């Protein structure tokens, strides 16, 4: 109903925002938000803030920190897993991979 009334709009993979769609701002973003989150986490891993075999921030923490939808945080974590930066243990969480498993760039 809010969307139909023009009070909010949704950008797939990024979230729902208050107000009318701002097409100008949308076009200036070159990197999708989930990739920006993943890049930030990679920098934290490289910088030693997130250490091997230690947990990364939860989806809930990422949602709160970046102000994004849960699916956006989930996509960021999935990308890091695909790239080899992290691994996930079911029912336990996601952890930074050992250094020797990190992608070669």
TrEMBL record:
Alphabetized InterPro entries for the sequence: Bact_HTH_transcr_reg, Tscrpt_reg_HTH_GntR, WH-like_DNA-bd_sf, WH_DNA-bd_sf
SUPFAM superfamilies xref list: Winged helix' DNA-binding domain
Pfam families (UniProt xref): GntR
Residue ranges of domain HTH gntR-type in the record: 31-99
GO function terms (MF aspect): DNA binding; DNA-binding transcription factor activity
Keywords of the record: DNA-binding, Transcription, Transcription regulation
Protein name as it appears in the record: GntR family transcriptional regulator
Gene source species: Planomonospora sphaerica
